[in-house]
Amino acid sequence: MTLTQLPLLNASLNLASASLLVLGLRFIRQDRRLAHRRCMLAALTTSCLFLIGYLTYHYQVGHTRFTDPAWFRPIYLGLLLTHVLLAVVIVPLVLITLYLALRGQFDRHKGIARWTWPIWMYVSVTGVIIYLLLYHIFPQQH
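The structure assignment produced for this chain is given below.
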């Protein structure tokens, strides 16, 4: 794998995380706890792999800049800002949610998961959108 392939891999991992989150929610609503658990652990795994790929890419490449079109830059930066801030917030939320589930504290798990799930979903989906904006819709010089 080359460095230039990492953004696509990272976007794919984000898409996989989002898909697994949707399936995990569906399974718990159907009271299919084992399937829910497997999906959520797989979502955690894909998110961790994403983080490794993201850090590796940006360690090597540095910052990615969005410059053109200039009219869209404020929209992109707003999306990026919410994505980054919530990506920082989601790490402890996921860890706490996972901890409560593993301890069998399902009422508390469910309470915090109501916050964790939509934030995690937002971060995963906006990660894919940011990739599409940077590499396909408004390709930038990288």
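Interim note for the steering committee: The chain has one domain: 3-137. The two ends are 17 Å apart (CA to CA).
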